Amino acid sequence: MTDRLKGKVAIITGGVAGIGLGIANCYVREGAKVVLTANHNVDGGHAAVAKFGEDVSLFVQQDVAQEADWQKVIDATVAKFGRVDILVNNAGIGGVNGAIEDLSLADWQKVIDVNLTANFLGEKAAIHAMKDTADAKGSIINVSSVAGLVGLPFAPAYSASKGGTRLLTHATALNLAQRKIDIRVNSVHPGWIDTAIVPEAARKQIIAGIPVGHMGEPEDIGEVCVYLGNDESKFANGAEFTVDGGQRA
C-alpha cells in the first residue's frame, strides 16, 4: 500500500465483479473507503464487503438507471463515511447484438438507460454530494469502452451508449471547469479484459487481435482509475484513457 487514495471515499457502480471489482481491489489497497453497488449480484456485494472489511467498504443494491436509487446510494455513503470524493461510473450491459434493423426499441432503450443515462444521473448526484461534503472537489471517472472510440458493427446500442459516455465526459468536464468547480471528469476506455463475459469459444481469436498478445486484467483498469482518483492527475480533465493492449494504437 502506498496510500495514494488515503482519506478518499469512492462510489464504484457495478463494483462487485469483473472490472468494477478490479477497481475496488486497487482502491482499497491504496487506502480508499469504497461503496460498491450492483443491481442483481447481491451475493457478490456481500462477498466483497466480507473480503475488504466493513470498516472500509459498503454494499448498496442499486438500479443505476433510477434517480431515486442514486439518492439512496449518496445518502448511505455520507451516513457511513461522511463524504464523497470519487465516483466511478462503471456499471454497464452489453445488450442485444445483431443487425440494427432487427433491434427492438426496448432493447435499444435498456442499453442507453444503463450505460448512458445512468452516467448522467451519477454525475449529477456525485457533483451535488461533492459540493455538500468535499468542498466542491473530486474526481468522476466514466468507464466507457474502445467501442466509444470505434463502433462495433453488431453492437449499435452499446457503441452509441459508450460514444455518448465519451462526449458526456467532455461536456461535463468543460462545464465544471468553466465555472471554476474543482471536480474533474475523465473517461477510461477498456479493450478486451479477462472477465466472465468473454466468450470462451472466441478467446483465441480475440487474443490473436491484441498486439501485446494477451487480454488485460481488471486491475489494469483499476490502476488507471487510481491515478485519476488522486491528486497526481490534477491536470487531467476531459481526457480519454485507452487501455486495450495496443489495439487502437
TrEMBL record:
InterPro entries: NAD(P)-bd_dom_sf, Sc_DH/Rdtase_CS, SDR_fam
Sequence intervals crossing the membrane: none
EC number: 1.1.1.47
Glycosyltransferase among keywords: no
UniProt keyword Mitochondrion present: no
GO molecular function terms listed in the Swiss-Prot or TrEMBL record: glucose 1-dehydrogenase [NAD(P)+] activity
Keywords for this protein: Oxidoreductase
Leading EC class: oxidoreductase
Family per similarity comment: Belongs to the short-chain dehydrogenases/reductases (SDR) family.
PANTHER family: 3-OXOACYL-[ACYL-CARRIER-PROTEIN] REDUCTASE (PTHR42760:SF133), SHORT-CHAIN DEHYDROGENASES/REDUCTASES FAMILY MEMBER (PTHR42760)
Name of the protein: Glucose 1-dehydrogenase
